[in-house]
Each structure stands twice: as structure tokens, then as C-alpha cells.
Design a protein that fits this description.
Chain lengths: 115, 113
Amino acid sequence: KAGVTQTPRYLIKTRGQQVTLSCSPISGHRSVSWYQQTPGQGLQFLFEYFSETQRNKGNFPGRFSGRQFSNSRSEMNVSTLELGDSALYLCASSSGGGWAGSPLHFGNGTRLTVT
Amino acid sequence: GDSVTQMEGPVTLSEEAFLTINCTYTATGYPSLFWYVQYPGEGLQLLLKATKADDKGSNKGFEATYRKETTSFHLEKGSVQVSDSAVYFCALVYGGSQGNLIFGKGTKLSVKP
């Protein structure tokens, strides 16, 4: 069974640009969540989608948005990039039964560098 | 608000040494608790979990017990290997299926041969 696939693995953008990251969950998983990982803040929850609907949202500005398609694939978009957005962005999928009952499976992440 | 506090690393041990990584939490209600591991260049993997007080999660020789009285979920392993070198994250989730997952800052473990 293929794991969670994130593309691209690396991205370099300049301030003010926008970026779109992609995540393909494990087949059959309907929940996709996104996290930002930085050395200073650690892992922070961005948002979670289930059956094309945003189910949970973390404490990030509106520049961070996402969506989920009918095949459960998800994209995350960051507009008007800032230097502080440089981070590893991780996507995770689960069968959607709630985190206690269905553990998260993470992708290897997309490393975004903003210059 | 709810939070997870882990011991700061890095932790460096010799092979076959005993490992403890401390984790304490603050939460209203009764969260589920997890340990995730991140090997170099990879995403996180679930290592073990416990969903109620006194539950013991175990996997790959690692163990952690959900202690409600001390709000702790310390990770232990009796004999570490070089292959255990990774970053370990303690995490909690509250609110059932609508909850948010909260991670600790992570503890980097290096095991020397």
C-alpha cells in the first residue's frame, strides 16, 4: 500500500509570491491534515479536511488555505509569502475515525524556503 | 490552553543504555496521548498510543504509561540501538473526532555504537 505522497519535496520562493503544495493520502483515507514544522515553534497544526470539508483549523493567518478534492487529495496554498513561512510542511492522512481511533500517517514533507 | 511539554534534547546515549524521555501535559478533560518518531529525512510515524488512564502503549521495545495523577506519558526503552536515533514527539488529542493534535517540541536522540 503506497504511503502518503507529498510534492514537491523542495521549493524555493521569494517574498510576496504564493505557493501550492500537494498531498496524496493513503488509498481509502478520507482525512488529510497539514502541519508546519520549524525549529523554533516545533510542529503546529494548520488544518484538517475530511470529505472535502475543512473540519478543524489551527491558529494561522488567512494567507494559509487548503482544499480537498473528491479523491481525497489535498492542496495547501500560502499567499504573499513571508520569510517566516520557511518550514517543513507535513501532510498526514487517516481513515477519519478521529485521532484516537485512527492514527495519522505522515508524508515526508515539503521543504519550503522563502528568500 | 492544552499543551505538551517534553524534556529538551539532544539526548546522547551509548548503545544498550536505558532511555527515558519525559513528557507531561496540560489538558482539560481526558485526552488521548501519543508518541511519534521522526527518522532523518522522513515524516513522522506513530510509535505508540494510550487512550485512557493507566493504559500502557508499547511498540518496538518502547513503552509509555498514561499517568493521569501526574499528567505524564514518559517514553522508556530498556536497551537502545543505533537505529533508534531519531526525534521523538509526544502529542495529545482532545475533543474526540473533532479535536486538534498538539505536539511537544520534540526530543532528538542520538545513540552511539
